[in-house]
Design goal:
Layout (H helix, E strand, L loop, with lengths): L3 H25 L2 H17 L10 H15 L14 H4 L7 H16 L2 H12 L4 H8 L3 H23 L12 H4 L6
Length: 187
């Protein structure tokens, strides 16, 4: 009935759809755009299947395709179509307590406020448990760059979470950049 090409493609969709969808939503900030990006990703993967030589690297290869498509469709933070990631809409979790849900909303809102390169690093590492070596392949950067992005992303997320935890009058609120807190780059 199906050839090996179709079976391989169907396995990719089955094994990687949720990962790609969550990643696309984290990158674009919009559920509808994320769905389109994932569909475009799978369409491009189908057309270029022969380019993947090592099938064990399908996940980073698919993410690389998805990332390019997501960057073309990114929603600016000021766009009213921006919507925080909602696990209830993704239908992945059981019922949570109100406190846990509020914490997740705060974390996801802080994540959405980060630059795209930091969101994708955190999403791949923490939400998808992707090893640094595979992340480097997926992002087309050196492993050291992945580690650097992860460090900067964690610092940025920490600052945003601290701002949420201790709200200050808007006129008095100042966010420090991580390198400034350590003495800057000139040392």
């Amino acid at each position: 009935m199906f050839g090996s090409r179709e079976r391989l493609y169907n396995a990719w969709v089955h094994d990687h759809y949720r990962f790609l969808f969550r990643s696309a939503w984290a990158l674009t900030g919009n559920r509808a755009i994320a769905e389109e990006v994932v569909q475009d990703c799978f369409e491009l993967a189908w057309r270029h299947m022969d380019q993947l030589r090592d099938r064990t690297l399908a996940r980073p290869w698919l993410f690389r395709i998805l990332r390019r498509e997501a960057l073309r469709n990114i929603v600016p933070a000021t766009d009213p179509r921006l919507e925080p990631y909602d696990e209830a809409l993704d239908a992945r979790t059981a019922k949570d307590t109100a406190t846990v849900v509020e914490e997740r909303i705060d974390i996801l809102a802080a994540l959405q406020a980060l630059p795209a390169i930091h969101r994708e690093a955190l999403t791949l590492f923490y939400f998808e448990d992707m090893p640094v070596a595979q992340m480097a392949l997926a992002l087309d950067v050196a492993p050291g760059t992945v580690l650097s992005r992860l460090n900067r992303a964690r610092d940025g997320l920490r600052l945003r979470m601290q701002a949420v935890a201790t709200p200050v009058e808007p006129s008095a609120q100042v966010l420090e950049f991580p390198h400034a807190a350590r003495g800057g780059r000139d040392e």
